Amino acid sequence: MTWTPLIHTERAGLTECVHFGAIAVADAQGRLLAHAGDAHWRTFTRSTLKPFQALPLLQGGGAAHFKLDDAQLALLCASHNGEAKHVAQVERLLAASGQSYKRLQCGCHVPYFKELGVEGPEGPYDERHHNCSGKHAGFLAYCVQHGLPMETHLAPSHPLQQAIRRDSAAALDLAESELAMGTDGCSAPNYAVPLHKLAQGFARLASGAPGTPYEESLTMLSRAMRAHPDLVSGTGRNDEAFMRIGRGDWVTKVGADGVQAIGSVSRGEALAIKVADGSKPALFAASVEALDQLGWLDDAQREALAPWRAAEILSVRGAQVGARRAVFQLARA
Question: How far apart are CA 5 and CA 158, in angstroms?
Answer without folding.
Answer: 41
